[in-house]
Amino acid sequence: MTQPKTIYDKIWESHLVYQGKDGSLIYIDRHLVHEVTSPQAFEGLRLSDRFVRQPKKTLAVADHNVPTEDRSKGIEDEESRIQVEALRQNCEDFGIEFIGMDDLRQGIVHIIGPEQGFTLPGSTIVCGDSHTSTHGAFGALAVGIGTSEVEHVLATQTLIQKKSKNFNVQIVGRCPEYITAKDLALSVIGAVGTAGGTGFVIEYSGNVVESLTMEGRMTLCNLTIEAGARAGLIAPDNKTYEYLQNRPMTPKGELWESALKYWKTLPSDKDVHYDKTITIDTKNLAPLVTWGTSPEDVIEIGGNIPIPEEIEDDSKKNAIKRSLEYMGLEAGAPIKGLKIDKVFIGSCTNGRIEDLRDAARILKDKKVSEHVDAMVVPGSGLVKAQAENEGLDKIFMESGFDWREPGCSMCLAMNADKLLPEERCASTSNRNFEGRQGRGGRTHLLSPKMAVAAAVMGHLADVRELDS
Amino acid sequence: MEKFTNIKGIAAPMLTTDGNQFSMMINVDTDMIIPKQFLKTIKRTGLGKNLFHEMRYDYDDNEIKTFILNKEPFSKAKVLLAGNNFGCGSSREHAAWAMLDFGIRVIMAPTYADIFYNNCFKNGILPICLSEDVVKYLAEFALKGEEFEIFLKEQSIRVSNYEVNFEIDTSSKNFLLEGFDDIGLTMEDSNLIDIYEDESNTNLPWYSL
Ligand code: SF4
Question: Could you give the domains of chain B?
Fold first, then answer.
């Protein structure tokens, strides 16, 4: 009998070009490229007279730098314009498909991969971007890489990797109303810690994971990197196949049927051994928010901000003190009721159609608080079009939200959308690091539903109370 | 890539302090190391002046005198000491480029985030893993401005009369010592990649495009 294997083991083995003692060569099926982490890689190819080995397995899009308002004038910021133009030129020179800013399909790289059916179960996917973990929602082994590795993949369609260990995160129980995939992900990060997943691939399982939609699964896998693991994985099932079937780049006809047969062999074998396992029971979960400057700084909306003096570990204690000062918070105070200035709904974490539906359903017939500046940035042109089809844009605009063009926007504030110093933001994005959304800006991560509650109330609020 | 030779120089400790007590700063993320406004470059060089930009300069771009890298002798540091989970967050290799451009060639911390750790090697930076206690002990020497010596071949660190060894896997070590071009090395195996592609076109044809 062969040894039982995890889905990660199976994908790993099927992509081994060769196995080395200290590192193996892994074949890469799909490579996503964006403008920020690729120019130096293309420059490297040029300098050493190298080509892109498999241009067709590479797909490029500009997302980080693009404006989310009026695009008729192009990109005003000169450096951003040069960077986006460099990507277009590089794609042209090396024969890679480039989705430009005026293309309906343009959007955040991790949203368009699945949308186009570029992301497939059992495949290996890389991108010069840490949130590549998103694609694991489809049962793909998807890892974020640095620019030197981007160059390596462009030139060789392979990556030198060490095998990670297997970590099973089971999410079980009866999930209460108003608890979204974002809350699940935050609770995982809170439980595992930002470094707890380092060296592991996390496989999510359990009845709650199975019951998530594909959008929810993407949110969960997206945030895996915030727990330190480079990849998150969810076994593919009928939902996965339904989502993918007939997408522009998925296999068709007989090829689809044979792929399907293969994909059904991917889920982890019964009785397989994981190097680490945790179980999260969702029964008593409340909506979560972050208070500090690390995604692990998670508390329930009804909770209180931690008191550093109660922490034993010196480096943690000092880190908390620093966060409290940066965030302008008082130790021990309730998080609920904290006045906010901005609300951001979007990003590769929560910029998909279901997130917008979720938010709009709560928002309908309510108004954004007067002092709050709120915006929705759909994750892609297709998400935007779909939302407009469903009339969601009207709900947002009538309530006082800005309705924007797709891109990364205020998730990392590389374009014009950013926080001013000391501005406080309720954000559906993924990182609350110091300065992430603008220098001195203060970010609280939460779900789209909770973002709406904050927008309407003008302060961090419990969506369960707002919506009853 | 340039070969990694022995390094001798000043070490700058990243600290969080509370009165007289200090600890190593944990979770130093790549947004801190190099903020997004500097990612618009299409070059690898020139980022050193913006390393830790928001801790280093005030809103008017004046140096913040209390920040370690703005103080003598640390403005010439070749070594950086920090706490757990160094380099977490964004995959931006700009973080490694900024360090290199500033002159940092060695980092000492208990643990690193995976992507950053890999990025270091690609740029000839040596990330050394040491226990929390040892990093903190070394930080005391660093604060006094003592010179550190790092011997990669021997896997040892020397400062004043203290010497400590560190672990590193052989391939990563050789990679730095030889200054390998890993793309070139992989391309020498391109016949193996050809074989894989042929097989995969037959066995996993749905991934071909
Ligand atoms: S939305 Fe944010 S996290 Fe996602 S790819 Fe863009 S910048 Fe990165």
Answer: 7-178 (3.20.19.10)
For residues A427 and A446, what is the distance between their CA atoms, to the nearest angstrom?
6
* Ligand 1 centre distance from Cα of residue A409 (Å): 8
pLDDT band at residue A468 using 50, 70 and 90 as cut-offs: low
Question: ipTM of the assembly?
Answer: 0.96
**Which atom of ligand 1 lies closest to the CA of A110?**
5
* Token duo for residue A80: 């951003």
Nearest atom within ligand 1 for CA of residue A430 = 3
- pLDDT for B102-157, tens place per residue? 999 999 999 999 999 999 999 999 999 999 999 999 999 999 999 999 999 999 99
Predicted confidence (pLDDT) per residue in A223-281, tens digit: 999 999 999 999 999 999 999 999 999 999 999 999 999 999 999 999 999 999 999 99
Residue of B93, B133, B136 for testing the chain A interface, max A β-carbons within 10 Å = B93
C-alpha span between A376 and A385 (Å, rounded):
13
Q: What percent of chain A has pLDDT over 90?
A: 96
For residue B140 the two structure tokens come to 């005391």
Summary mean pLDDT of chain A: 97
CA dihedral A413, A393, A108, A142 (to 10 degrees): 120
**Ligand 1 close to Cβ of residue A230 (< 6 A):** no
Neighbours of A7 (CB within 10 A): 27
Q: Which residue is closest in CA terms to ligand 1's atom 2?
A: A411
Token pair 């780049």 is found at A249
pLDDT for res A1: 62
How far does the CA of residue A3 sit from the closest CA of chain B (Å)? 22
Residue A96: CB within 6 Å of ligand 1?
no
- Sort out which chain A residues have CB atoms less than 8 A from B86's CB and list them: none
Q: Do A194 and B88 touch (CB under 8 A)?
A: yes
Contact A17 B84 (CB under 8 A): no
φ, ψ dihedrals at B52, nearest 5°: 55, 40
Residue A236 near residue A135 (C-beta atoms within 8 A): no
Does the CB atom of residue A411 touch ligand 1 within 6 A? yes
Task: Indicate yes or no: CB of A195 within 8 angstroms of CB of B17.
Answer: no
Q: Which residue has the tokens 């995959």?
A: B91
Cβ atoms of residues B171 and B165 within 8 Å: no
Q: Are A122 and A14 within 8 A, CB to CB?
A: yes
Whole-number pLDDT of residue A203: 98
Alpha carbons B209 and B206: distance in angstroms, whole number: 8
Handedness of CA B186, B192, B198, B204 (dihedral sign): negative
The answer to whether B115 contacts A145, with C-beta atoms less than 8 Å apart, is yes
Judge: A27–B31 Cβ closer than 8 Å, yes or no: no
- Give me the phi and psi of A65, to 5 degrees please: -95, -5
- What's the CA-to-centroid distance between A418 and ligand 1, angstroms? 14
What does DSSP say about strands A124-127 and A141-144: parallel, antiparallel, or unpaired? parallel
A348 Cβ inside 6 Å of ligand 1: yes
* pLDDT score for A416: 87
